[in-house]
Amino acid sequence: MTKSRFQKISREPLHDKVYHELRSAIMAGRFAPGERLTVRGIADEFGVSAMPVRAALTRLVAEKIATQNATGGVELPKMSHEEYLERIELRALLEGRAAALAAAKANKRTVSHLEKLADALSEASVAGDARGYVNANKKFKFAVVEAAASEPLQDLVSRLWLQVGPFMYMFQNDVAHQAEIDRHHQVVDAIREGDAERARVEMERDILDGIEFLKRTAPED
Questions:
Q1: Which of 67, 88, 106, 187 stands 20 to 30 A from 13 (CA)?
Q2: CA dist 2 → 5, 43, 51, 219 (Å)
């Protein structure tokens, strides 16, 4: 039996819960670029009826997170390497800004939380746990954005993650090398020291260095 990409949902309103879980799954790379999102398949994984899934997919299409093809099917969009690189560069700028703001605002509790997430990233990479790595990476990056305490910034970062998230699916092939290039602990050190400029630089470097891996693993089309 295929392992579900979701947690079973048991409380109302189901359509909101399905929608938010789908967004999270897309950000975490649990779907590949261009993958079709079927009502029946997703409903089965959630353990719910088709109605809340259909409502959630309609919402994703309206927000341009997913697209509707000529036959009415819903799928995640593909993009060229150039389009992908542009969005990653924008992520680096915005999340670098978030790290800088976090360095000016973070307290000991926040730093401790970030440190634990960075440790989890390293452990997942060394263990070759691709899904654990991708999930920990998402948690770490959004924890930094949350520490920045900027709602507009968080909204913009979320939108970009929804566009590039499916490409994180490529990390399911190999994550062991990530331990060598990740800068998560350096980001945490800079935030702990209140060094905004260093935090920005380290976060930007962490994001941009990851491009090289996807250049090697993503299909040419």
A1: 67
A2: 9, 14, 23, 24
